[in-house]
Amino acid sequence: MHVFVTGATGTIGSPVVAELLAHGHTVLALARSDASARALESVGAEPLRGSTADLDVLRDGAARSEGVISLAFGSDYSSGEAVARSVEEEGAALAALSEELQGSDRPLVTVSGTPWVPGRLSTEADPAPTDGPVGGRGRTVAALLALASQGVRGSAVRMPRTVHHRGQGGFAGLLTDLARRTGVSAYPGDGTQRWPAVHALDAAVLFRLALESAPAGTAWHAVADEGDQVRDIAAVIGRRLGLPVASRPVEHFGPFGPIYALDQPASSAATREGLGWRPTQPGLLEDLENLAP
């Protein structure tokens, strides 16, 4: 399959491109810069210059493909306004891609977050959250999944708050960055909140499986670790960086503070059964041992 990929040089995107190429697919990938274009060419992908704000470029990429994986999302998490801009841009990009694919029955796989359900593991059957700092992503993905009757084989791979690789990435990576800036490895409240996690290489496999075989209108969970306690995550970060570990108020964590404070374990049982996904990479706490002091 000839696949158009956005966000192709990110923490998730790079392994997705490698996974696709290793399984006989060809890749046309959005490249925001010359450096990204060179990186894509070096692994055997064809770059398409542009950004997710270039809707005509996105339509062209989708028109030239047999399937699309949309991963691009802004990297500025400095404020609620910055996150809102990224959510809005992602929504417009997915709308443009969906419009181009309507009536073709070609797959469009996008990314969203695992939901949180008080008192239990969330499952693939639970609706995506549509409120909070990134609630707009849930609304956008719901609109995509509703296009099954219009000839778009849309599916969503729901990612946990931490997608990691060599100790970097996701909410755990943001905790690490915050610890380096503030001199303390912090967790909110009593730290018993549970965060699900997945290794980026395992997530990449799931994106390929969804592209190849996920039915229209379905959501899947890329969850390898159902829920590590945040204080355990902070403890590994503190030990690796040589910093004290302590509780801090929600405001300490910036715009994502309210999400950090949630207990949000998630299951992937239906995904493993339905798509035959089997994570094989190290779990989060083991992978965080790769952090450099």
Automatic annotation (TrEMBL):
Chain residue ranges for the region called Disordered: 107-133, 271-293
Annotated ranges, domain NAD-dependent epimerase/dehydratase: 3-215
One Pfam family linked to the record: Epimerase
Signal peptide: none
InterPro entries: Epimerase_deHydtase, NAD(P)-bd_dom_sf, NAD(P)-dependent_oxidoreduct
Top-level taxon of the source organism: Bacteria
CDD domains on file: SDR_a7 (cd05262)
PANTHER family, alphabetized: PROTEIN YEEZ, PUTATIVE-RELATED
Identification of the protein by name: Nucleoside-diphosphate-sugar epimerase
Organism: Microlunatus capsulatus
